[in-house]
Model the fold of this input.
Amino acid sequence: MLWRIIYEIKEYNRFSGHRAAVYDLVFSPDGEMIASASGDKTIKLWQRDGTLLNTLEGHLEQVKGVAFSPDGKRLSEKSHLLHPSPRWSPNSGGLLQAN
Done:
């Protein structure tokens, strides 16, 4: 859920689709896309209005965090400190670099 604060807290959009806890939620640099990282071993990409754009699967562990590159063209995950972080294309959902 995203909340808008205008004199009180109101629900703005509800994002549903993960099957486990969401550990991180970040906006793209242009503010048009949102990435969510979850214990269900997926990253989901959303439009700002809550429409699901893509699900990035194939992670071996719970995804604890996610970050957009400053230009918004790459997405990195954080699942475990001992493993390298794959990099994804937010627009296509394709794997850019597996490390």
User: Anything to note?
Assistant: Strands lie at 2-5, 9-13, 22-27, 33-38, 43-47, 52-56, 65-68, 75-78, 87-88, 95-97. The chain has one domain: 19-92.
